[in-house]
Amino acid sequence: MRQLELTFQVAAPLYKESVDSSIAPGLFVKHQAIQKALSLKDRYPDALIIGSDQVFVDARQRTLGKAGGVEEAVSQLMEMQGRRHTFYTGIAVYDSRSGEQLVEFETYSVTLRTLSEEQVRNYVARESPIDCAGSFKVEGLGVALMEKMEGNDYTTLIGLPLIRLVDMLGQFGIPVI
Q1: Distance between CA atoms of 133 and 87, rounded to whole angstroms?
Q2: Residue 11 covered by a domain
Q3: Alpha carbon 122 to chain centroid, angstroms
Q4: Does the N-terminal or the C-terminal CB of the chain have fewer CB atoms within 10 Å?
Q5: Are the CB atoms for 49 and 37 separated by under 8 Å?
């Protein structure tokens, strides 16, 4: 949001995240994103609320979320290396005054380098990415884990697809430029 030079306030959603691999990943992240935005509508009755959520589908077609712990992050990264994985990021914009909402999702794929367990543990210790889908932060040191990145908008991988957000805000009459 700072990159777009918009005035904003950050608020933790009053919605508990989960991962449901029985639902198509695109639909799932859209649902999570709007539920996060809607969870704040009473607290912010006169606001445009943005919600976002992300999962990734690994090379084995498993839908995964945040690791939640150091050992889980190390294990996730060790399994991910050398294969292509797709991240799904849902984004919702909700106008709490009118009830109008837009909900979309974007995808972005990554292939991790082949790394030693020592390198992976070093990375996890330095950046503590346990609260990130895929257990890395590409906007930080996590970029060093990458062999290849593919997609239309790298900010999708960070967790808030800004190109899509600019379009959505425009539909609410908020020009970014």
Answers
A1: 8
A2: no
A3: 23
A4: C
A5: yes
Q: Whole-angstrom Cα distance, residue 13 to residue 123?
A: 29
Instruction: Give the model confidence (pLDDT) of 25-73 as tens digits.
Output: 999 999 999 999 999 999 999 999 999 999 989 888 888 888 889 999 9
Residue 162 in any domain: the answer is yes
Distance CA 32, CA 161 (A): 15
**pLDDT value of residue 135:** 92
Q: Which residue has the tokens 């077609």?
A: 61
Q: Is 42 a catalytic residue?
A: no
Number of domain units in the chain: 1
Catalytic: which of 20, 42, 46, 53?
53
CA distance 156 to 33: 13
| Domain assignment of residue 7, yes or no | no
120: domain range?
25-171
Point out the least confidently predicted range of 56-60, 148-152, 166-170. Answer: 56-60
For the domain that residue 45 is a member of, what is the CATH number?
Answer: 3.90.950.10
Enter the pTM of the model: 0.89
- From residue 129, give the alpha-carbon distance in Å to each of 23, 62, 66, 97: 25, 20, 9, 36
DSSP 133: B
Lookup: tokens for 4: 């777009």
Confirm whether 116 is domain-assigned.
yes
